[in-house]
Amino acid sequence: MAKNTPRREEALTRERIIEASISLLDSRGESGLTFRALAEELSTGAGAIYWHVANKNDLLTAACDALVARTLNLPVAEAAPQDVIRAVALGMFDAIDAHPWIGSALARAPWQSPIVRLLERLGQQVRAMGMAPAGQFTAVSALLSYILGVSGQNAANAQIGKELGGDRDAILAQVAGAWSALDADAYPFTRSIAAQFREHDDRADFLAGIDLILRGIALPG
């Protein structure tokens, strides 16, 4: 006797597929996102899913784009351009921290919709800051590279931390201790920041880096 397939209560749409994909990516990681798992999650057949998305890369990009769009839609009422950039940067930092797979999804789609959304939002704010057109692309590229690079590394560090037991303070203390023991002549700077590294706040340091870039953008010339 054939096994009954659970009846779908809602019509299958691209939006439902994307939401289910985000849920699977968060719970199982990128390797856990398969069309079979997605079909089970949505109580449908894989063929019905292929009607809405071409392949796994398309699905990853769409899931990433949905989260980037939500981040960029956070309200920033009548804020100065610098404050909008800070809000976008911190929103992406938190989004990638909560959904570490976003980093690899963005890397697979470097000039598709998620990146274009970020490029446009940052570019409008850099332009509003009064920067000369010749330098706008360089400034936005620097912001984009910093936001995605540091956010991705923070998410990777969090995953490594979980694998090492999840005690952030203990892990930082261990690294700081190792840095303090380095050769003073070969690593004078690294030794000097060992204690600071042990106590640092990831989000605060991230925003401090954004402010450094913004100060450079605001310089005349």
Mind explaining what this structure looks like?
The chain contains 12 helices and no strands. The chain is mainly alpha-helical. Helix 1 packs across helix 4 and helix 5 runs parallel beside helix 8. This is TetR family transcriptional regulator. InterPro entries: Homeodomain-like_sf, HTH-type_TetR-like_transc_reg, HTH_TetR, Tet_transcr_reg_TetR, Tet_transcr_reg_TetR-rel_C_sf. Keywords: DNA-binding, Transcription, Transcription regulation.
Keywords:
221 residues, mainly alpha, flat, 71% helix
Instruction: Give the % helix.
Output: over 70%
Overall mean pLDDT score?
A: 90
Radius of gyration: 21 Å
Proportion of β residues?
Answer: under 5%
Helices and strands, in order, run as: HHHHHHHHHHHH
Q: How would the global form be characterised?
A: flat
Number of strands: 0
Question: What is the structural class?
Answer: mainly alpha
Number of helical elements = 12
Give a quick account of the main beta sheet: strands, pairing sense, barrel closure. none
Distance between the termini: 77 Å
Q: Residue ranges: pLDDT <50 for 5 or more in a row?
A: none
Write a concise synopsis of the structure shown.
Keywords: DNA-binding, Transcription, Transcription regulation. The protein is mostly helical and 221 residues long. The protein has helices spanning 14-28, 35-42, 46-50, 56-72, 81-98, 102-108, 113-128, 133-163, 168-180, 188-192, 194-199, 202-218.
